[in-house]
Specification:
The protein is an alpha+beta fold. It contains 3 helices and 9 strands, in the order E-H-H-E-E-E-E-E-E-H-E-E. Strands 1, 2, 3, 4, 5, 6, 7, 8 and 9 form a 9-stranded antiparallel β-sheet that branches.
Length: about 160
């Protein structure tokens, strides 16, 4: 299992507005060439939503369906793949306001665990998938938020096995 974290300061957004933009999956294809299509299905009784994704991934496309849980009280979106090209793909988006050097800033954190499900090629494919996922998320955040500043180096990736 691999973990990818992308954390940015959204310079032009409040935490509440950042959360609202992240929740609007239908707009993602308009904002970045990395997302081809997102189909959002009607909400379930508990407020969760199923969404179907087609995303540019290196020289091909990745497709999956995920269950999305929105938690407006904590400005969090949790997601977990139901079926698709990953063996495992789950994670969260969290928007929060922090005080840094006397100024309140909006920090957006994307965190995911994934497993491509190809153990024999994991050593070769996982680093490429990590890099591509980080790049895609950063492009999505730039499209959604406007100007963003990366808080940690792009290679801040924690690798785990399990």
């Amino acid at each position: 299992m691999r973990e990818v974290i992308v954390q940015v300061v959204a310079e032009e957004r409040t935490a509440r507005r950042a959360y609202e933009l992240i929740c609007d999956f239908r707009r993602y294809p308009e904002l970045t060439d990395k997302v081809n299509e997102v189909v959002v299905h009607p909400p379930e009784a508990d407020g969760s939503v199923r969404s179907d994704w087609t995303v540019v991934f290196r020289n091909g496309l990745m497709r999956w369906s995920e269950l999305d849980r929105f938690v407006p009280e904590t400005l969090t979106v949790e997601f977990e793949q139901l079926k698709g090209d990953f063996e495992v793909f789950r994670g969260s988006w969290v928007c929060e306001e922090r005080e840094e050097e006397g100024t309140v800033v909006t920090v957006v954190t994307f965190r995911s665990d994934f497993d491509l499900g190809i153990p024999s090629l994991a050593e070769l494919l996982d680093p490429v998938a990590e890099s591509t996922l980080r790049d895609n998320i950063l492009r999505i955040l730039e499209g959604l938020m406007g100007r963003v500043t990366l808080m940690a180096p792009m290679d801040l990736t924690v690798s785990r096995h399990g």
